[in-house]
Design the sequence.
């Protein structure tokens, strides 16, 4: 799961909420992009590709079936939280970093992102 917001290269205010895994294959997603305050729902899954052994390496975030989202996330900080109670276990890495790449608006216009601040997380849990 990750999120970003800021000004795109063309000056538009943009934001994104991109989840993976939780709703994959259900036909429902939590994925959306905002362009100047207007939400654009993404009705497809998003994939995150990253090195699980070195979360500080760049990540790739892409939509599954189209090119609406094609981003690189470059972490610069790892906020880690670990909990281990007998029946509840959680290992969380909340990565803070910058987003680069392209998102496509509802009119099919590519919007370039260059260094937008955001976060992405890797979370393993048992409850």
Sequence:
């Amino acid at each position: 799961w990750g999120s970003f917001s800021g000004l795109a290269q063309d000056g538009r205010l943009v934001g994104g909420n991109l989840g993976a895994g939780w709703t994959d294959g259900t036909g429902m997603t939590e994925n959306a992009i905002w362009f100047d305050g207007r939400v654009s729902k993404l009705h497809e899954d998003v994939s995150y590709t990253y090195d699980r052994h070195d979360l500080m390496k760049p990540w790739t975030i892409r939509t599954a079936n189209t090119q609406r989202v094609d981003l690189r996330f470059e972490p610069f900080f790892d906020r880690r939280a670990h909990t281990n109670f007998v029946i509840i276990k959680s290992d969380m890495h909340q990565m803070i970093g910058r987003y680069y790449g392209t998102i496509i608006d509802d009119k099919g216009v590519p919007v370039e992102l260059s260094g937008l601040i955001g976060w992405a997380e890797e979370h393993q849990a048992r409850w």
